[in-house]
Here is the input.
Amino acid sequence: MDVKPNFKWYEKVLLYPILIPFFAVKDFVSKIENDSFRTRLHQVVIGKGNEEKIKSILKSGANPNAKDRDGRTALHLAALNHRFEYIPLLVSLGVDPRQKDDEKATVLHYMSEVKDSEILNSVLTSAINLNDKTDLTEQTVLHLFVKNGDPKMVKILLAKGAKQSIDVKDYLGNTALHYSMSSMHPQKLEVTKLLIAAGANTLSQNRKSQTAYDLGLELQKDPLIDQNILKQQLRLF
Here is the structure.
């Protein structure tokens, strides 16, 4: 038999300040979760999921391209949360890498830190537009990958069509070549070589009227930049 606690009136008065905030916080958290519009697939990808759970959800008929409050699919969230290993599986099960979120970004815009060429190529097999720019920063996929500075990944993008956006400028007027100069990646020299060999305009100026070379000269005083690599970069112009 259930026994309900029989609180006296003064005990209830003492408990209200404790219980009311507790239930208010609980309701608030629940509301946030519901308002995010995240499906079970979203939650599994960003939580403690595994490939079998993902397969089970999608094979049961769930919408593979369902979007959350920010317009992001499970593929966007996998990249944002560095769950890159899920990306080939999600694509193979019908999640469309061409889908854009509310910032006009595809999954590729969030994959600049990926190191596995197979994972990158799993997205590039679709008819994805590598020249799309994000809404706020107006950056292409090439801008972002060059910033990260991995020549292996940049080479793949250039071969797959990113060469068309090689001279596209972002909101600061910077091209990918500008960012290759300011990158802190130890292999950024190779990235600069790739961009110039692919036909990057070395005379393109940003909003401060700086070419990539000018930016390099300015960075000669920056203690965070490897000056030996920077000198080798400047010799390429």
Summary: The chain is about 50% helix and 0% strand.
